[in-house]
Amino acid sequence: MPSALLHRDGADHVEVLTGDVVTVATLDDIPMTPGTPVLAVIPYRQITERGFECVDDGAPLECLLVRSRHTEPLSNFPPGDITLRDGGFDLSDDDYARVVEEVLRDEIGHGEGANFVIHRTYRAGFEGDPRAAFGRLLHAEQGTYWTFLVDTGNRILIGATPERHVSVLDGIVMMNPISGTFRHGSGDILDFLRDPKEIEELYMVLDEELKMMATVAEHGGQVAGPYLKEMARLTHTEYLLAGRGSLDVRAVLRETMFAPTVTGSPIENACRVIARHERRGRRYYAGVLALLDHDDSGRQTLDAPILIRTAEITPDGLLRVPVGATLVRHSTPAGEVAETHTKAAGLLSALGAVPSRPAAVRGTAPSPEIQRLLASRNDELARFWLDSRAPGALTVPALAGRHAVIVDAEDTFTAMLAHQLKALGLAVTIRPWTTVSDTPDLPKVLSGADLVVVGPGPGDPSDLGDPKMAALHGLVTSVLAAGRPLFAVCLGQQILASLLGLPLRRRDSPYQGLAREIDFFGTPRRVGFYSSFSAVAARPTVATRYGPVTLAVDPADETVHALRGRGFAGVQFHPESVLSRDGVEILQELLPPLLTEAISPAIPG
């Protein structure tokens, strides 16, 4: 009979679930009947439900309809003997290193995104009792969110995943971005906590999961942490995000497919990059194992860890263990190759493929220096995402009651920006760039907008052969010609600047996930960048066909960090990013002047 064994972090027992398995096509098809919990095994290919690209391998979305549920002590699951034969990675170390080099050079270096996760798979023949493997994993790994065995009758998944993807309980949505990897025995953990690559990697996934929280929680996510996530062979760093939401839990799953820690950012383009460079399906790697249920009051609940550190065993005895590394601008091929070996080692040691070296980590207390280093990571982050505040505390009278339309250029940073604009008093609508392309009827497209916001997105702003870039150039041209208030962010600013006659330049080194202090029209401001292109100018003012424009120019390299003219403004950085300590203050400064002389086009009543 199909069944599942679940051990949750800190529990002294294993949950045993049995029932029937059904295969469904979409997340909305997952049955949700009070009294019948469902354990859904969600493959990576479901990302197509969001319209994102993937190599479709046909892996099914299987659901265990739980008919029976009880608990058993850990002692009922002793480690047993199993055999792995003819094991090895599908990509050699050299081949994987070449893929890493290509992604760093051709994708991150050309502005396609801030970070991307590329996987490889360890394959071997499996002989033995899967429950023995589950017992070995229970005893060999520590600090996991779930340790599990799921047998659908068509496949067996055995894993020890460290990471909650998303959960819903009592109306509170929670996510848990984890990133940064310290390999035990590889050096001093204090050096790891000071490493800029590891710090930036965690910040980037924090930003990306805040984007997701912004779509599923009413006021976005509030950030707690960072904390250490200690496991037997690895230590990670993590944040916890929480926010109140009311969506159906299946919609929460869909809007959060899939974690940036296993895909990259921005997510839509990360999926394209993954398909381009992996050129094969991911099956269940990067998907989620989701337990959907109802509480005693009839409200939906959800607990969904990420399917990483997971082995899939097929009926013919083939074992697959996929692992990936997060590639950022500081990455090296050798470092990422080593990371995949380390991530696989915990599971493979439990399964007997590599020597087992269990290490007790529970009960260790972070030293005062570790606590100080962790706490210091928040010193320069945006308090908007870290602090609670009373409703209306940030409202700007000049913005209150006005309406902004944000044009999304394939980066859901726009969802975070929307929360900031709402906090300042604006009503906000987000529209994808495809809805403003190839239309001469600008008033209809932007009906009721007091302010048009052209948002960030990946790609080369000068490539007018790209339909997105052509559409955004046409939109900005139309808005400027109509004299409508305009605010442009990152890609939006690059396009605005080019239409104002400023040249664009690709940076020698990408500004992806980088925070720094800039001179913002005479005031020092700390802001976060996610870009590979920028406008450049030699002087702080330029004459344009739309009037004089003032520029915030970096004297070191003539990069234009921001610009403002009559009725329009732009920023090259991301004021909505958690990296932009001064992001809200910048919006409070830039936006009111844009609307001072604007007459609201909204129709009364």
TrEMBL record:
Listed Gene3D superfamilies: 3.40.50.880, Anthranilate synthase (3.60.120.10)
Residues in Glutamine amidotransferase domain copies: 405-589
EC id: 4.1.3.27
Domain Chorismate-utilising enzyme C-terminal: 93-343
Matching InterPro entries: ADC_synthase (IPR005801), Anth_synth_I-like (IPR019999), Chorismate_C (IPR015890), Class_I_gatase-like (IPR029062), GATASE (IPR017926), TrpG/PapA_dom (IPR006221)
Annotated keywords: Glutamine amidotransferase, Lyase
Superkingdom classification of source: Bacteria
Catalytic activity: chorismate + L-glutamine = anthranilate + pyruvate + L-glutamate + H(+)
PROSITE patterns in UniProt: GATASE_TYPE_1
Protein name, as recorded: anthranilate synthase
